[in-house]
């Protein structure tokens, strides 16, 4: 009997030692990966080891691309909290370890602190009369925008804001597909600013459904883990004519004798 207990205790001890040596892994969806950090849509960000291994989870070979927003991933941590391996997958992965188990490893790019020029008082009234909380915590915010079909494929889309003096190229967005652009920014809660989309100049500002100038979008960030801000552009200032076609000069003059060059030829004798 004593020998049986000894064997059971030895097996339990070996199992505990193996579990202690096993790497800690979590699965989730990537929000951003840059500058030595990986951020998940849970709102958690972690420091990545300089020699991190990036693998395709299915083949276990080196990934053909770095981690990208919306990729699903399994991250492995060393005892110091560095992410040493990231395995990428195009589909959702089953949960392995709760993010609560690695909360102690979570980091931020800067110490959360309210900006006195931008932050509103704690528990200030929100846009709809509800109290919102502002503690200056860093929040990952993704701005998405859908642009009209006539947007030139070679053009970039930007956000200009009142905080940048309405610079039409203040924030360049990343193209997702021909009609969708996106950008992720780390912003302190309590930040309040207004913005308008452009294609790089004041003459290419967005227009509303009625083809007239739009009121700037109003953005106020309250405390949250992650925020997604959807937007739609219905037209551009330089494509403001009906049907998105710029009309020619319609009055013949000595300097413009043929304002409509594509008309069919005049019948003989007229």
Element layout with pairings:
Layout: H1 2-21, E1 24-34, E2 37-40, E3 45-56, E4 72-77, E5 83-89, E6 124-125, E7 131-132, E8 138-146, E9 158-161, E10 171-172, E11 174-177, E12 180-188, E13 192-198, E14 206-207, E15 217-220, E16 226-232, E17 235-236
Parallel strand pairs: 3-5, 8-16
Antiparallel strand pairs: 1-2, 1-4, 2-3, 4-5, 6-7, 8-12, 9-10, 9-13, 11-12, 13-15, 14-17
What is the helix content?
Answer: under 10%
The figure for the number of domains is 2
Give the CATH class of the largest domain: Mainly Beta
Rg, Cα atoms, Å: 28 Å
CATH topology of the largest domain: Immunoglobulin-like
Question: How would you describe this protein?
Answer:
This protein is mainly beta. The chain is built from 1 helix and 17 strands. The strands form 5 sheets. A 5-stranded mixed beta barrel has the order 1-2-3-5-4. A 4-stranded mixed beta sheet has the order 11-12-8-16, with no helix packed on it. It has a 4-stranded antiparallel beta sheet with strand order 10-9-13-15, with no helix packed on it. The longest helix is centred in the N-terminal third of the chain and has 20 residues, at 2-21.
């Amino acid at each position: 009997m004593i020998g049986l207990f000894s064997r059971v205790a030895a097996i339990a001890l070996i199992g505990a030692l193996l579990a202690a040596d096993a790497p800690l892994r979590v699965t989730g969806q990537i929000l951003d990966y840059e500058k030595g950090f990986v951020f998940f849509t849970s709102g958690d960000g972690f420091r990545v080891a300089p020699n991190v291994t990036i693998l395709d989870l299915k083949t276990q070979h080196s990934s053909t691309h770095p981690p990208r927003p919306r990729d699903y991933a399994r991250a492995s941590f060393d005892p110091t909290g560095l992410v040493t391996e990231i395995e990428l997958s195009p589909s959702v992965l089953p949960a392995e370890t709760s993010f609560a188990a690695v909360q102690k490893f979570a980091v931020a790019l800067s110490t959360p602190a309210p900006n006195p020029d931008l932050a509103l008082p704690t528990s200030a009234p929100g846009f709809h009369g509800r109290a919102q909380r502002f503690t200056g915590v860093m929040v990952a915010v993704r701005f998405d925008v859908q642009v009209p079909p006539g947007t030139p494929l070679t053009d970039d889309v930007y956000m200009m804001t009142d905080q940048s003096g309405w610079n039409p190229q203040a924030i360049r967005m990343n193209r997702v597909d021909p009609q969708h652009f996106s950008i992720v920014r780390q912003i302190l809660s309590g930040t309040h600013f207004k913005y308008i989309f452009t294609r790089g100049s004041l003459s290419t500002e967005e227009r509303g459904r009625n083809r007239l100038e739009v009121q700037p979008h109003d953005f106020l960030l309250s405390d949250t883990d992650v925020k997604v801000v959807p937007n739609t552009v219905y037209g551009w200032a330089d494509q403001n004519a009906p049907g998105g076609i710029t009309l020619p000069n319609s009055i013949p003059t000595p300097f413009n004798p043929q304002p409509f060059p594509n008309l069919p030829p005049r019948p003989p004798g007229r």
